[in-house]
Amino acid sequence: MSHFTLAACLTLGAAMQGAAAQAAPPVVRIAELEIEPASLEAYKAILTEEIETSVRVEPGVLSLNAVSIDDNPAHIRLLEVYASQAAYEAHLKAPHFVKYKVSTAGMVRSLKLISTTPIMLCAKSPAAHCM
Amino acid sequence: MSHFTLAACLTLGAAMQGAAAQAAPPVVRIAELEIEPASLEAYKAILTEEIETSVRVEPGVLSLNAVSIDDNPAHIRLLEVYASQAAYEAHLKAPHFVKYKVSTAGMVRSLKLISTTPIMLCAKSPAAHCM
């Protein structure tokens, strides 16, 4: 894993709020979706493009991680990290996000959005490339 | 957000498996925990230390993100990304992980581990510091 060299952590749990008080906390959300099975591959392709574009072009979209549940692959979960509430609201109006919402409207059986508070967000720092 | 300059994406969804076939897929897991409310702050402090240490010292621990659910803060979720199954197994034997498990054994009401398959893991590339 030579392309991972450093670690960057975002610590904002209640126990650390004193230390992090000077930084605005990010907005972190979980999304739980159930997709129409017949549309699953099409949905994943559209989601993949939307995530890549959002993180690349929007300064305030810090990370978007999407996975499918192995026991039920039509169940998708996302962990979304935005720099601020303003960044989140800007994301909702971004053309690539609007395109995603319109394109997938008929594919989504259910969508549950869960507001969260980060305790610790920690990742190795990758070099400048995509895998 | 000048400390975020680049984006790195890990694309391993079914739609992209051809392009990513040469790379071993990471092991991605969701953990859902319910913590004894009286132990919540102590638990979060121990978890924070365990996450920071794991990502810093273990080459195969790519990211660990922990959040609490705002509607029920004693409910914690983690998204865990390991470079491989071997990296995951090494993590389970790491002294800081064993210390975390022993220290928090009496604090955890329930633990559910969910195996997942990544669709898209995408984050800006932070510079070499922690927030």
| Largest interface, C-beta within 8 A | A-B, 63 and 63 residues
C-alpha termini separation of chain A: 12 Å
Query: Can you tell me the overall shape of chain A?
Result: globular
Strands in their spatial order, largest beta sheet of chain A: 1-5-2-4-3
Averaged pLDDT of chain A, please? Answer: 85
Q: Gyration radius of chain A, to the nearest Å?
A: 16 Å
Query: Roughly what percent helix of chain A?
Result: 25-40%
Structural class of chain A: alpha+beta
* Oligomer description: homodimer
In total, the number of strands of chain A is: 5
Low-confidence stretches of chain A: 1-5, 12-21, 127-131
* Residues in β-strands, percent of chain A: 35-45%
* N-to-C order of helices and strands of chain A: EHEHEEHHE
What does this structure look like?
The structure is a homodimer. With about 130 residues, chain A is α+β, with helices and mostly antiparallel strands. Chain A contains 4 helices and 5 strands, in the order βαβαββααβ. Chain A has helices spanning about 15-20, 40-55, 85-95, 95-105, and strands spanning about 5-10, 25-35, 60-70, 70-80, 110-125. A 5-stranded antiparallel beta sheet of chain A has the order 1-5-2-4-3. In chain A, helix 2 packs antiparallel against helix 4 (about 95-105). Chain A is globular and about 45 Å long. At the A-B interface, strand 1, helix 2, strand 3, strand 4 and strand 5 of A face strand 1, helix 2, strand 3, strand 4 and strand 5 of B. Strand 3 of chain A pairs antiparallel with strand 5 (about 110-125) of chain B, so a sheet runs across the interface.
